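Late entry, written up from scratch paper. The run itself happened at the end of the previous shift, but nothing got recorded in the book at the time, so transcribing now.
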Amino acid sequence: MNKKITQTGIMFKRATALDMLRGISIFGMVLSANIPFGVLPSWMYHAQTPPPSHIYNPGIPGLTWVDLVLPVFIFCMGVSIPLALNKRIESGDKLFKISFNVIERYLMLVIFAIFIAHIQPSANSNGFLNFNFLGFDMKGYDLNIISILGFLLLFPIYMVMKDSKRRLKSRIAGWTGAIGIIFILQFVYGFEFSLQRRNIIILLLANVYLLGALSWFITRKSTTNRLLLLGLWAAVQLLSKYTHFDEPLNQLNNLSWIFQFRMTHYMLLLIPATLVGDLLYKRMKSGQSYAYLIPVHKSTTILFSALALFGVWLLIGLYNRWSLILNISTPIILAGFYFSIKKYLPQYMLLFKIAAYMILIGLILEPVEGGIKKDPVTASYLFLTGGISICWLCFLEFICHKSEDRYIVKLFSGAGSNPLLAYVATTWFVLPLLQISFLVIPYNWLYPAGYHWVGVIRAIILVLFVMNLVAWASRKKIVWRA
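Output as recorded:
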């Protein structure tokens, strides 16, 4: 939310730290998809798909930084729900209009998930233009062009436009082009259109957003009711884990393309995130600035830095399976934080309590569930990653307070405020562009055989380039919204 005066005369300001956290999570998502495959230490990949084979093993517990990026993004989505919907309520929108917009956004996310899955170059192996150039095998040259065209068509479909007439013309042109590409892929390339072919991450976000927005709306006036709803979702997850009642629901082909029941388990993360969103909204409504929240004191710098490092410590301990050390040290560390925050940062006490409860509950449940796991998702995974996300959000608020005009803040917050564009720009635009321009040849030279960490540096450079591109687009008001 940019600065804007509502009907009640309240001045709102976009939550820069939240955008920054979202941007960092997207950076992690894209980076993890572009690092060398199967040759790095296991902590550089999902814990349950270790190198070198990356074969999925649901029996492996643990947490890596790659396992963190998705729940951090979902946490940011949960925090954003009260900020966005409260703004609509304050502006006078009726219940029907708000509900319609929530459902519309959900459906647009589902369509987004289906479309990008069809135009991804690697999804279709039947390209017509395959040749060798300077010893480089170029396969599917034409498919890369189609991917870029599909990416460009997402602009008229999803870009925010204030002028209604221009928006209508743009949407018609975009939809016409997108349908045309689907027809070309099916009838020229023999790539059959299927609702079951969709980007699973975007579909998950769509499902979680729909349930999260509806859950927040019906409980927005009562924290007690929200916590009771959290308990209900916890019971549902427990029941499905031990009775598997949800398996038939997940296998319904007529429904699974748009909704999967197993994705509802992420409500254990999203509902607490909406409580954080409520706190941020109240802060914005009261006009509290970072300067008010964060007094100038050496202890505040130490406290915020310690919160960030505490999140890193939990990640390292869970990856290495230091369960006993974590169970002994965490309550002591949290107690130290409690008294320090009470003295130096009382405005952050409610946020800290939510984080502390989530971390403690996650640690208690961790051994009960056979260790923390991303898939099948465990409650400990959702609670612990939520608690870590709050710690890092607090630290990023401190960073924004100290240096909101710095390049690093503008980079990640700019990309984080434009998440759909940031998510697809690498795979659906930049990499295909490298292919058709043959710049992929020098790009490949940047990763000499056997120098795997050089390949990581190359991936970091690529992703930073894309993040800069998206941040620039955000500054120019070129923003996608479902």
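The longest strand covers residues 131-133.
(Scratch paper discarded after transcription.)
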